[in-house]
Structure formats: structure tokens, C-alpha cells
Amino acid sequence: MSHNGNNGxxxxxxxxxxxxxxxxxxxxxxxxxxxxxRSSMSTATDGMFKAVCLSGIRTCDNTGTGxxxxxxxxxxxGYIQVIVRPLTPFGDVLPDPRAxxxxxxxxxxxxxxKALWFxxxxxxxxxxxxxxxxxxxxxxxxxxxIPNSDFRGLRFQExxxxxxxxxxxxxxxxxxxxxxxxxxxxxxxxxxxxSLTNATPEEIEKKATNYDESTxxxxxxxxxxxxxxxxxxxxxxxxxxxxxxxWDKLEASVTINSSxxxxxxxxxxxxxxxxxxxxxxxxxxxxxPKNGNGTAMPYVAQPAKAGKSKHNxxxxxxxxxxxxxxxxxxKKNTGATKAEWIAxxxxxxxxxxxxxxxxxxxxxDPVHMHLDIPTKIRNKIVAVSKNEANRQKACKLVSTIxxx
Length: 404
Description:
The chain has 404 residues and is α+β, with helices and mostly antiparallel strands. The chain has helices spanning 12-18, 24-44, 103-113, 166-169, 180-184, 201-213, 220-229, 236-250, 263-277, 338-344, 346-352, 375-385, 391-398; strands at residues 49-53, 73-74, 80-86, 118-121, 136-141, 154-156, 252-258, 281-283, 286-288, 316-323, 326-328, 356-357, 368-370.
């Protein structure tokens, strides 16, 4: 390390003091860096911290099969690993890729993070990446990791909504030219450093218009009822785009089963579930409700807390789709397996239009799709609608909060 290195830990004055005897400067700097490293690890392994995803900047491929070495990797057991950079003081232990505009330097800086900050999901990754380049995630070290020894126990939680660090997103808008052809792309084809969605807002609007103008698309009158009173007005174009693509590309008809739910409904549903659970107990690691043997389960799965369901925000849709004589529905009422869902092409259409498919979750829900929105927007939506029990009135209130 040079005495005037980028980290600024060793100043010129100290360099002069320590160069009188051969090796003194090198030994001292190594000790200082070692202590800095140990201190950083000690702090990092103490609780939860926020980090930004660095994987996928070049190819946008965080599915675990990307060609770029810095893309996410799918590991044994169905977990995915991404490169992150902690948004904390101990994150500065490695070079900051934002300090450079040269594509090769950016790539190298991101690569250095892989040795320390390679975070493994604490949830099963199924089909499509739940995380994008520049997205902020919550990280922690599992109990089996060894504090102050190594970072192999680094984990990240499943994101709820999407928050981005704009200072990193700027790197993804940097157009690579010239030497970047060799660094970032196939010969003769320069890369642009990333893209946060597959379909642009203009493309979504175009598909929504195609939906409106189609004279052959099935179930449009039933869809209209949902669009008009049970979805956030800014989510409707996404729903239309997905349904149009499913019909246009796969000749798949769509039935919308559920969309907006009020916060009041969600609260009552959770109270009903908790009452059913009663005192309960754990048997072989699984929760057995007190009344479970004598009373039917009120819902297929535990309802989210009031205001926490994606359906409370008006940006979610549960559906069935039929292709030919095959219906794709929930695992409970149809014979469509997960492999059949994926092979159908339906999940790919959902994700290519910027939505999240519920089939990626550990609590597998293939009939669900939703648009991720920032936490601050979710909070505003809940604040304006939480006291309105009427679904149509509540949905109108929800639509007063822009999603962008």
C-alpha cells in the first residue's frame, strides 16, 4: 500500500517518520490495516445493518445464471448469493466503486467486495431474482458464523418493497464506450451499466393501450370491475400489460381472483387467525394451534399484519390463467406444479413487466403478482386509508398517493 493511498489512513508525515529503518513503514502499515480490519469485522458482526447490492450492474442478471463473474450465484439448497457493500463506516474497508468513472475500475472495485461481502439469502430463491443492482437490503451474520474471524456467515433478508441507493444507481446509467467494449461486452457491442427494470414505463403504457384496444382478449368486462375500484390507479397499466402479454404471447386467458384489501379487513383477518391459533405449542419445530384439531383453518396461510400486505397498497393481484385446457392456479385447487408454472412462460411475463411473481417465495404462492414500491410510499398509502373500511372508498384514497 502506498503512503498516500486512497484510504487516507497513513499520511505523508507518518511515512517520513517510519522510513528510517528498512521495513518499519511496511510493518506498521500492515499492523494498522490489520487492526482496522479486525475492528471493522467486530462492528459488522454486531446486529443488523443496511447494504447495497452490487451484483448485476453489467448484465442485470441476478438469477444465479449470469455470465458476468459479479452477477449473483445460485448455491446449494436453492439459496442465492449477491455482492453487497455495507452502507456503514465499516463498509469503507474496501475501495468505493463510486469513486471512479472508468468501467474497468468500477468492475475491479466491485470484484474486491466478493471476498468479504458476499451475502447469502436467508430465504429460498426459486425463479426470479428478488434483488436488483443498487437495491438496499438488510444484512446480518447468522449465529453459526465466527465473529472477528471471517465473513462467511453473512446473510441478507428478503426485501419488503424496493429502496435504492441513488448514488450507486448513477453508476448503472453510465454509458460504456471505447475501451468498455472489451471490458464489458461482446466484441463490437458496448454495454450500458445495468437497467433496473425490463419493461420501460413507455412500454408498459403501450401494452396497456394494446389491452384496451384488443377485441379478442377474454374476460375484459370482469377485469374492468377490478381495474376501476380495486387497484391503485398507477398499478392498473402493469396489470393490463401482463394480461395482454399473456394473451398475445401464450393465448392465456386470465381471471382476477383478488386485488385490493382494506387495512381494516387485514386487521380483522389477522385477529381471526390469532384467535384460531390460541395458545398453541410447537411440536417437532412446527406450530400446532390449540384449536387446530377441532376447528378448520380460517385461511390457507397466516394473513399479514394490518398495513403490511401488498394487497393493502393496491399493487397486488391474485389470478388464475388458462392455456388450452390447462389451468394454472394455486397449488391447492389445481394440478399445476411449480415446474409446469415455470415452463408455461407465465412467470417470465410477470417479471419481464417489472412485477414480482409469488412463486419465488418460500411460502410458495404462484397465483400472486405485485409491484414493489418504496417503504415511504407504502407508509403514506396506509396512513390515508387505514381508517376506511369501505373497499371502494379506501381504494380511491390509496390512489391519491403516487407510486413514483
